[in-house]
Write a sequence for this structure.
């Protein structure tokens, strides 16, 4: 279930970069999210201070995570909610199934939740004759197409409207085949109409949680469509899937993180709907769920505390890192081969599926550092990818040739004279080989480069030669 | 060992915090109780009149619309005006909210009102909001017998009648108000609403009315 294909990263990447439709979709998405984020930040002079505060909030919570979770549990129960603890994905799936069976649920509506993806919930429910219906538009589209989300906040960012039209025509085959479905507004209206009927059929609604609030025992979700709200107020039972690190102390702390989240994600000041849910409906309420359950999922997170990966638990899942990653923007989310994608996925996936399966991901980085630069929680993503590379090296994941090459490089790099002499050598050779054109059509050990473009020969003298010629002074 | 004990045990051992540490617990409880505010954007440091202006600007920026009336007596006519402008039926589902009772809904011969929760066929809802936040143009609605949450989501058009005095600067100001009103236990649902429903999931094209209302109209009622 929920099998990782991260081992195939290189193969996936090769076919992704040749897919013109995908590249056009990625380019549009990237430019959109980057521009909107910039504009939103430029109108909030306090943004960087909020980032520092956001980081401090999460760091303090992580250092006291046991206490905050216990306090959250006490307050959620006091408000009439049930709290369930799940060590791993299988345990979480079974808790969901037990709750569904207790109310004879046949249909489950889902707001967008990455934890459900992480635990492979949809397939599991289907195997148990319960129909999960995704209600977030992007998630609905990829559910119809039997795909994984390719982005944590824009699951269908890899698709064009033409592809969505095709999917709707195929799946909504009871509708007029001659209807017009070319524009996004028509596609959204059709999804609204189809899903509206389903909202009233479900016995259970499942949402994720952007935050859990210890002070009040509440869960918070953030959406633009309102699907997460209809999914939780119409069915009899509301289940919240949340990982341990979602807890924050107070509503004030959640407010600080909200100011960071939407701006970093979509460039909005606030998402349209931010909803604080506390317990089930009250006796006098006219609507709302009769039962409220929160499932707290560990799935390895407790083991990340106290390690070099603890900072990753500050992540608020905004997607800014992938929106700004040159690798993600070239290959798209599916190439990463599991639930979490882009730089945050390159750090998280090895944690969940093992570095032996996901070793390619922390290597799929140019270390340009943009992910860390835009991360609202200031997570040192490149540093963590380096930790995974080190672990892969120590765990024997690196081939003999790579090992020997690294050893050789280390030997040379520690001997400056030798290094300079060796650096000078290829510069001269390449220049002579390139001749007057100054470019090489092929390189013996660099065919990966020259198969697609010429290699420009180095021009002029090396830096060290120029430095020496100037007597160590800047020109 | 239960999953709960197991997980908490693993957290403590990872943090090097085996055994219960009363001092840490007290510090955490204290941290929660003080409701410490972090940075609140300075953009809301202005007079109440300017705050109302900022709120209206922010609502408009997220594709909501705003009208202003002199008192609750003028609210039904303002609702009718809006419905006429958008060719909508003059039938509304009205929140059973006593704060809306000051308006003469029954006097209007053209406007048909029903009170309660929203049904799938309701086209237009009229509610109040317990507060609003000028910082981002956000309306705050709390669930209760006076305000079923379905009113905020099922109808295609949501009209909010908002007394001007309820416009606060920040979310933090609203949390303090809610704590004063509800004590330790919050209402089941607090909806923070910033504009009408939308999706950008198809080619990042902004499309209004994804699942919730396509139109969000705020009628600000000036202080009497």
């Amino acid at each position: 279930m929920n099998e990782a294909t991260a081992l195939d990263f290189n193969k996936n990447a090769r076919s992704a970069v040749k897919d013109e439709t995908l590249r056009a979709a990625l380019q549009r998405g990237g430019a959109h999210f980057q521009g909107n984020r910039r504009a939103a930040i430029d109108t909030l002079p306090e943004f960087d201070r909020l980032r520092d505060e956001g980081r401090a909030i999460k760091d303090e919570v992580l250092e006291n995570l046991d206490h905050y979770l216990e306090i959250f549990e006490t307050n959620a129960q006091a408000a009439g909610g049930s709290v369930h603890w799940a060590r791993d994905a299988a345990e979480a799936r079974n808790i969901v199934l037990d709750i569904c069976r207790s109310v004879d649920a046949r249909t489950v509506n889902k707001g967008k939740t990455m934890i459900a993806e992480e635990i492979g919930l949809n397939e599991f429910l289907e195997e148990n004759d319960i129909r999960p219906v995704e209600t977030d538009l992007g998630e609905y589209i990829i559910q119809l197409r039997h795909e994984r989300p390719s982005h944590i906040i824009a699951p269908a960012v890899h698709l064009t409207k033409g592809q969505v039209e095709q999917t709707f025509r195929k799946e909504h085959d009871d509708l007029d085949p001659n209807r017009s479905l070319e524009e996004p507004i028509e596609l959204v209206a059709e999804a609204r109409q189809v899903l509206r009927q389903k909202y009233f059929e479900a016995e259970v609604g499942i949402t994720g949680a952007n935050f859990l609030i210890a002070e009040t025992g509440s869960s918070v979700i953030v959406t633009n469509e309102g699907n997460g709200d209809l999914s939780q107020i119409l069915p009899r039972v509301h289940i919240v899937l949340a990982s341990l690190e979602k807890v924050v102390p107070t509503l004030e702390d959640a407010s600080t993180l909200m100011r960071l989240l939407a701006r970093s994600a979509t460039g909005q000041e606030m998402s349209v709907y931010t909803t604080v849910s506390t317990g089930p409906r009250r006796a006098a309420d006219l609507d709302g769920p009769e039962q409220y359950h929160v499932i707290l999922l560990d799935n390895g997170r407790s083991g990340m505390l106290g390690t070099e990966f603890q900072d990753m638990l500050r992540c608020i899942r905004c997607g800014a890192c992938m929106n700004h990653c040159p690798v993600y923007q070239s290959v798209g989310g599916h190439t990463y081969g599991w639930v979490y994608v882009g730089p945050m996925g390159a750090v998280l996936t090895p944690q969940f599926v093992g570095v032996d399966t996901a070793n390619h991901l922390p290597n799929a980085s140019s270390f340009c550092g943009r992910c860390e630069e835009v991360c609202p929680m200031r997570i040192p993503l490149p540093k963590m990818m380096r930790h995974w590379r080190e672990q892969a090296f120590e765990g024997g994941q690196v081939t003999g040739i790579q090992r020997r090459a690294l050893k050789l490089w280390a030997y040379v790099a520690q001997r400056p004279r030798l290094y300079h002499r060796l650096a000078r050598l290829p510069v001269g050779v390449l220049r002579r080989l390139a001749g007057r054109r100054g470019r090489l059509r092929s390189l013996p050990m660099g065919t990966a480069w020259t198969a697609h473009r010429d290699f420009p020969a180095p021009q002029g003298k090396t830096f060290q030669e120029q430095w020496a010629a100037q007597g160590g002074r800047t020109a | 060992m239960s999953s709960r004990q197991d997980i908490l045990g693993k957290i403590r051992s990872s943090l090097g915090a085996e055994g219960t540490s009363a001092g840490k617990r007290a510090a955490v409880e204290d941290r929660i109780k003080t409701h410490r505010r972090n940075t609140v954007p300075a953009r809301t440091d202005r007079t109440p009149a300017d705050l109302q202006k900022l709120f209206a600007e922010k609502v408009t920026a997220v594709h909501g619309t705003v009208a202003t009336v002199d008192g609750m007596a003028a609210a039904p006519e303002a609702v009718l005006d809006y419905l006429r402008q958008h060719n909508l039926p003059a039938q509304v589902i009205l929140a059973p909210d006593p704060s809306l009772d000051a308006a003469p809904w029954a006097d209007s011969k053209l406007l048909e009102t029903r009170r309660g929760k929203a049904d799938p066929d309701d086209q237009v809802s009229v509610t109040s909001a317990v507060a609003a936040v000028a910082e981002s143009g956000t309306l705050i609605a709390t669930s209760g017998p006076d305000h079923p949450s379905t009113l905020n989501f099922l109808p295609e058009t949501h009209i909010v009648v908002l007394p001007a005095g309820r416009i606060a600067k920040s979310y933090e100001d609203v949390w303090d108000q809610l704590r004063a009103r509800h004590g330790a236990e919050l209402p089941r649902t607090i909806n923070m609403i910033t504009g009408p429903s939308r999706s950008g999931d198809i080619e990042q094209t902004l499309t209004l009315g994804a699942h919730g209302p396509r139109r969000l109209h705020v009628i600000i009622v000036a202080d009497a």
Remarks:
- Chain B has a mean pLDDT of 95.
- Chain B has five helices and twelve strands.
- The helical segments of chain B are 3-15, 22-33, 48-61, 75-85, 171-182.
- The two ends of chain B are 63 Å apart (CA to CA).
